Amino acid sequence: MSSPVDSVGGDSTLSISTECGENIVWLRGEWGTVRFRVEIADEPEEQQQGLMHRESMPTSAGMLFVYPDARPASFWMANTLIPLDMLFFDVSGQLINLHENAVPLDRSPIFGGNEVKAVLEINGGLSRNLGLFPTREGAALPTEIAHPSFENDLAVFPCAVR
Question: Which residues of 132-160 are buried (b: 16+ CB within 10 A; e: fewer)?
Answer without folding.
Answer: bebeeeebbeebbbbbbbbeeeebbbbbe
